Amino acid sequence: MKSLVMGLFLSVFFISSASWAGRGYLYEANFNHMGDSYLDRLESMPTDLLSSLDNDKRNICIHRYRGILDDGVLDIRIALGYFDWTTGNNVYAGHTNYGLSPSMDLGAYSALKRLLLTPCYGKARFCGFRQDPKNSYRFLREVQIHGNKYNARVEIHFSSATEYLNANLVDYRTEQKQRTQFMENYFARALQEADAVFYFGHSRNGGGPDFAPPIFIPGRNKVNYDGYYEVQRPGLKKMISALNNGSKKTAVIGLMSCASRDHFLSRVRAAAPKTGVITSMDVLNVDEVYTAMIGGADALLRGQCQRSFYQQLRMTHNNQKFITMDGMFE
Q1: Number of Cβ within a 10 Å radius of residue 128
Q2: Which of 52, 90, 134, 329 has its CA 20 to 30 Å from the CA of residue 226?
Q3: Exposed, middle or buried by CB within 10 Å (0-12, 13-18, 19+), for 163?
Q4: What is the tens place of the pLDDT at every residue in 127-183?
């Protein structure tokens, strides 16, 4: 079945966003709620002790984190794709008309930033950060992993110049092109430099990861999957090129987008066979991939091993059905 690739949302998602109009970015309140709810689940999740694992599992876990932690820094980078909601109609929130295909990545960025700066009250670690005074998109804290202390940094960038598609294509066209180019470079560098990279956005039916406004069928309000994304595969080609041409490959890739396992896994594993890959197995609502990303980042910040890492990705009913990982602790 032809998917809308993350374009489908439960009606409650839109209705609740309307009630928050004027209090932040479009959908920011929804992302706040999803993040807070998942962090609450993570707060009670135990953190692995290596001494409690049998020898085989302990050695596998130590091996996975050896390259990640050897330099004393845990470097996690999150790339928010151009995350439009393409419905074919104008989107209204309160009295505001956001037009066709408004962007959600600005709201997601603001919510993730807020979550990182929230104090930790339990065992979770995707919290308690401080903003880097030298880089407002980077967040810092100290974590304890396997009995040792490390500096952790999480850096996040978004793709949309504004929330309005028409503005990004017309009035802010130059700014949008610059932002798209910046994000493509940021993602490519992250794949070659960072310990872990999470992409959150559209799969574009295999044409992603994508950091640009959608390409429509000429004269229609419909994303051009058949004639462009499925044929050209622009994002996939750039991702594989970055993995093939870097002297180093990230240890973990989270492709938090619809049906990313089918669209990307085989090519990514071929280019980076030692990299653990987190993917989704269907066309999903935003909450599954958004919360799984938070769970995966939190698991890395704790140094979770096989079973616990997998649990943190899958702490809701839908995540248990649709989120998986390969090559992580095999």
Answers
A1: 18
A2: 90
A3: buried
A4: 999 999 999 999 999 999 999 999 999 999 999 999 999 999 999 999 999 999 999
